[in-house]
Amino acid sequence: MTELTNLTVAEIRDGHRAGDFSAVEVAEAFNANVAGAKALNAFIVETPEHAIAAAKTADADRAAGTLKPLSGVPIGMKDLFATNGVQTTAASHMLEGFVPRYESTVSQKLWDAGCGMLGKLNLDQFAMGSSNETSYFGNVISPWKRKDGGNAALAPGGSSGGSSSAIAARLCPAATGTDTGGSIRQPAAFVGISGIKPTYGRCSRWGIVAFASSLDQAGPMARDVKDCAIMLENMAGFDPKDATSLNLPVPNWEAALSSDLKGKKVGIPKEYRLEGIDPDIDAMWDAGIAMLKDAGAEVVDISLPHTKYALPAYYIIAPAEASSNLARYDGVRYGLRDLPEKAGLQDMYAATRADGFGPEVKRRIMIGTYVLSAGFYDAYYTQAQKVRTLIARDFEQAFGVCDVILAPTAPSAAFGLGEKTADPLAMYLNDVFAVPASLAGLPAMSVPAALNREGLPLGLQIIGKAFDEQGVLNAGLAIEERAGFNARAEKWW
C-alpha cells in the first residue's frame, strides 16, 4: 500500500470509503509527520487530538453508512481562521494566547464536511509578507533545497508559507490559505503545489482575521488541481454573516473537471513580459502556452495596459485598509495589553501597539494612515481606487476575446531566507504578477509547471472571469497533465 501521507485528498477520501484503511490510520500517519518536522516551523499550534477525534467519527460514520464529503481527510488550518477553543494568533504577538469562542465560517464548513485539524499553520504576521519571515513565531522554512546549494534555507513564500511548506513536506494533504495580493498563489508556486484564489466573495471572510477587507479571500492549497476543486466545494458558499459573501450556488467543480480545452481561447498579456526577468520563467511560460495549445485551446495576444500601476495601487489600498482593520488592537478588549506603571489610556495604547506589532505590520499601518490622512486621501487613496477600476476594466475587455489568461505566478523561484528582508520594495515585487487579479476580484490559480536550473519549482498562473472557477480549474488540469510535474522535496528535516 502507498504510504498514507503520500495520498492526495481524493485518494484518502476514496480509499477510506472503500475500506482500504481507517481514518484513524491516516490521522496517526500525518500526526507523526507533523511531530517529526518541527525544523520546518510550519505549525504554530499542533492539534493531533482534533485530527484523531474527527477520524474516529469518520470511521464510525463509515460503519453506519453516513459518510460526509471529506470524511477521513485531515487538513492544516492557516492561523488566520478563528478556531473555537484553539489559539488563533495571526502569527502576531498581539494575539498570542487568544482563544476564540467561535468558529470561522470556512473552518466550520470543513469540520461539517468531515475534516479533522492537524494544527494551526504559521504565516506572515497578519498575512503581511511574501516570505513568511514576519511571523512572531519565527520563519517557516521551505522543504526544498537548491541543487548544490548546501544548507541554505529557502523561503516557502507568503503569507500562506506554513500551508505551502506543510503540504509540500507531506505534513498534511491540503490546507486553507488566504490571498490578499497573491498569498495563496505565490507560496504554492514556490514549493510545487497548487492553490486557487476564488472570485472575491466565494468563501466567507467571517471569522478570518482581517488584513484588507476588499481584497482578502480564502481558498484551498493542495497537491493537485482535483484536490483544490474538492476543497473549494466544501469551503465556498453564501454566508449571511459576511456582507461581501456571494449569494450564489456552489458548483460541482470536481465533477465538471476536464482538460479538454477545445473551443477555448487563452489570452497572453504582453505587459507580463518583463525586461530582465529570469529566463527560466519565460521558458516555463512558453512551455505552458504550448501545453494549452495541445489541450485544444487557441492562444491570443491581449493587452492589460494598466498592469504597471497595479503594484503601487495595491500597496496604497491594502495598507489603508490594514490601518483601519488593525486599529481594533488596542489592549482594551482582547489580545495583548501592555500597561506601564502609572500609565494612562494613551500610554497603554502606544505601549501595546509598539510591542504587539512587528516591523512590517507597523510599516504598513504607517503607510495606510498616511494615505488616508487629510490632504493626502485624494492624492493617493482616491487615485489608487481609480486605477483599480481601470485594471478591472482591462480584464473585462480582455475577456471579451479570451476565456482565461495565462501568466507566470511569480517573477522568480523561491529565494533564500534573509535575501530580501533588508529591501521591502524588492520583497513587494514578488507580487507583481499576482496583484492585478486580486485588485479585480477575479479567480486565479497557480499550478506547478517546471523546475528551474537550480532544481526549484516554478508555477504558472491561470486567471479567469468572475465566477468562472471551473474554467480556471480546467486550464490548470490541462497544464498539470501535460507538465507531468511530480517532483517533491527530498526529506532533509
Outline the structure in words.
This protein has 493 residues and is α/β, with parallel strands linked by helices. Helix content is 36%, strand content 13%. The chain contains 15 helices and eleven strands. It has helices at residues 9-18, 23-35, 48-64, 105-112, 161-168, 185-191, 225-235, 279-294, 310-325, 345-356, 359-371, 377-398, 424-428, 435-440, 469-483, and strands at 43-46, 74-78, 116-121, 174-179, 194-197, 217-222, 265-269, 298-302, 404-408, 444-451, 457-464. The strands form two sheets. Strands 4-6-5-10-11-9-7-8 form an eight-stranded mixed beta sheet, sandwiched between helices. A three-stranded mixed beta sheet has the order 1-3-2, with helices on both faces. Helix 9 (310-325) crosses helix 11 and helix 9 crosses helix 12 (377-398). The longest helix is centred in the last third of the chain and has 22 residues, at 377-398. The protein is globular and about 65 Å long. The relative contact order is 0.14. The model has no long low-confidence stretch (mean pLDDT 96).
What features would you highlight for this structure?
three-stranded mixed beta sheet; 11 strands; alpha/beta; 493 residues
Could you give the topology of this structure?
Layout (H helix, E strand, L loop, with lengths): L8 H10 L4 H13 L7 E4 L1 H17 L9 E5 L26 H8 L3 E6 L39 H8 L5 E6 L5 H7 L2 E4 L19 E6 L2 H11 L29 E5 L9 H16 L3 E5 L7 H16 L19 H12 L2 H13 L5 H22 L5 E5 L15 H5 L6 H6 L3 E8 L5 E8 L4 H15 L10
Parallel strand pairs: 2-3, 7-8, 7-9
Antiparallel strand pairs: 1-3, 4-6, 5-6, 5-10, 9-11, 10-11
